[in-house]
Write a structure and sequence with these properties.
CATH superfamily: P-loop containing nucleotide triphosphate hydrolases
Bound molecules: 2'-deoxycytidine-5'-monophosphate
Structural class: alpha/beta
Order of helices and strands: EHEHHEEEHHEHEHHEH
Strand content: 15-25%
Distance between the termini: 8 Å
Number of domains: 1
Oligomer: single chain
Helix content: 40-55%
Largest sheet: 5 strands, parallel
Length: about 220
């Protein structure tokens, strides 16, 4: 019988993690868990409630009293916050430009990491984020660190935004992505770094399908 392994995929914004992770999960019959969506949901709620994004204690208190659920659907993964569908809202420019500030708080991370570990406890998961291989699923059977050039990642976000009907400028997106990379990599709590035992995958010149196939090949080996 094939093993129900854990697959951890980390990397900076726009590397293709979520698109590729979803394809890998579907091909293996695994559950896809988008941890970035959880940080976004916390950020969205804090902004709605006018909680200062530097107020770690208030944010942790708010999060402890919140329910975040990720539900698969025919239109992709839906995100529910306190039973309300916030899938679209958490992708707004406002949330995107503030989420690194919220994700930098150790107490926020502790609470979300515990939820993520529970979700992955039985294996059969593909989880993507920034600290999955280094903190959340340290024993994951397969760890991937995915990246691409800043220019290519900005271009992908630009096209993605166009599809969602969100106005953006390529130049501004490039600046924002570079800034978010810097914040995510330089923060004290669980910074974005490649785990020693992770496989590096540069998706700059790879098609989505080629990147997914590369991961599936590695996964098949681990599942034997
Ligand atoms: O993948 P994304 O763009 O939806 O992630 C949103 C933000 O959440 C990103 O700026 C970094 C943060 N994040 C994190 O710190 N740890 C994770 N495991 C996932 C996301």
């Amino acid at each position: 019988m094939k093993k129900n392994i854990q697959i951890a995929i980390d990397g900076p914004a726009g590397a293709g993690k979520s698109t590729i992770a979803k394809i890998v999960a579907e091909a293996l019959g695994f559950t896809y868990i988008d941890t970035g969506a959880m940080y976004r949901a916390v950020t969205y709620k804090a902004m709605q409630q006018n909680i200062h994004l530097d107020d770690e204690a208030k944010l942790a208190e708010m999060l402890a009293a919140s329910t975040i659920e990720l539900k698969p659907s025919s239109q992709g993964q839906l995100v529910f916050l306190d039973a309300q569908n916030v899938t679209e809202e958490i992708r707004s420019n406002e949330v995107t430009s503030s989420v690194s500030q919220v994700a930098a708080h150790a107490r926020v991370r502790e609470l979300l990491v515990a939820q993520q570990q529970n979700l992955a406890a039985n294996g059969g998961v593909v989880m993507d984020g920034r600290d999955i291989a280094t903190h959340v699923l340290k024993n994951a059977e397969l760890k991937i660190f995915m990246s691409a050039t800043v220019e290519e990642r900005a271009r992908r976000r630009f096209i993605d935004n166009q599809k969602r009907g969100i106005d953006s400028s390529l130049e501004k997106l490039q600046e924002e992505i570079a800034l978010r990379d810097k914040k995510d990599s330089e923060r004290e709590a669980s910074p974005l770094i490649q785990a020693e035992d992770a496989v590096f995958l540069d998706t700059t010149a790879l098609s989505i399908d080629d990147a997914a196939q590369a991961i599936l090949k590695l996964a098949e080996e681990k599942m034997l």
